[in-house]
Each structure stands twice: as structure tokens, then as C-alpha cells.
Design brief:
The protein has one domain: Glycerol-3-phosphate (1)-acyltransferase, CATH 3.40.1130. About 40% of the residues lie in helices and about 20% in strands. The two termini are about 25 Å apart. It is an enzyme of class 2 (transferase). Converts lysophosphatidic acid (LPA) into phosphatidic acid by incorporating acyl moiety at the 2 position. Keywords: Acyltransferase, Cell inner membrane, Cell membrane, Lipid biosynthesis, Lipid metabolism, Membrane, Phospholipid biosynthesis, Phospholipid metabolism, Transferase.
Amino acid sequence: MIEFVITVLIIIVLMYAFRNHTHPIRRTWGHLQTFLMGFRIKQVGEASTTTTLLVLNHQSLVDIVALETIYPKNLCWVAKKEIQDIPLFGHIIPAPRMISIDRKDKRSIIKMIKEGKERVLEGRVLAMFPEGTRGRGDKLLKFQSGAKILAEKLELIVQPAIIVGARHIFDSKNIDAHGGEIQVIYLDPINPKDDELWFEKMHAAMSERLALALAVH
């Protein structure tokens, strides 16, 4: 935890200093974390070049590390406002121009859509944890509606991905860490315009793939 906090504060300073290079800074930081924390990342499938919204299950802070390390495009994470409110550490949101939302304020949806459109036009890929909070890693929690609203309003191409093993690598709740492997499994991209039940079917497909991955992991 100490190592993680120190390196995050360092890259925050670097991202403010080099605002046009925040993506390579985060990517380098991700590779550094795999070395310092002693884990490796195994990718299954491919990140689609058409994706404009990436949705993932969430179990650990290492989820973000893994995606920042291997994802080929500049991600824009949509995060809850509570993270930005953390002293010093909260600058991890504005420094690389991520998006923060206040789930208690309905006007925050308008802000998310407006800023999401701006980031996509800049060539970035939006990234969300539709569960809204960290789970145990053994099953998907119920999805919140934010990802569905964002995808349909902005007509995004959605690619779901499953992360397996991140909580074993770093469990921030119990301050427990181990070496090992994280799997990032890409599923087929989805065009929400093709099926009005796409969101529910995506949850079912991700749940099934997670169960299969855990059975063999």
C-alpha cells in the first residue's frame, strides 16, 4: 500500500507537468507496478479497435493497473466523486482528465454524457465498472444504470471484459498482497442499437465467462 500510494503521487505530479503525455506515463507506471508488486498479466482475446466504451468487473485497485498496462488506447475512467475528494490522491482524476460523477446528484448524468462525448471525440476510450463498487471477485454484482445510459445516449460500441485474480494480487480492504497472475479476458463488442436487452444480456455473458474462468483459474 505504501509503495502504491507513493508511486501514484509521483505520477500525478508527472501528469500535471506533462499534460500531453499522460497516457504513456500511466502505461509506464502500470508496468512498474507489475514488477514491484510481483504479478504478471495474461490477456485472453483482443481489444476491439471499434470500442468506445469498455466495461469491466471490479474487485481491486489492481484492475485499473492491469488495464492501464495492456490497453492500447488512452482510457478515460468514469469514477465516483468520492475518489476525487481524497486529499492529494484524488488528483488522479483531474490530472489525466478522467470523469468523476456524483451518484447522489442526478445532474451528474448530464455532466458524464457531456464530458464522455468530449473524450470520445478526442480519440479516448471510456472505461467503467458498472457494478459501481468492488466485489469479492467470485461473481458479478448488479449493474448500475450509468453505463447503459452513457452507451445509448452517445451511441457507443461497448466491449465487456472480465478481470480474474486481481483481488488475490492486492486486497485493499484487508491489506493483503500476493504475487501471481491476473487474467484480462475480452468478450465480443456490442452495439446497443442491435438489441434493446443488450445490457441484461451483457451481464449474463460476463457472469458466465467469469464463472468459467474461475473454474479453471
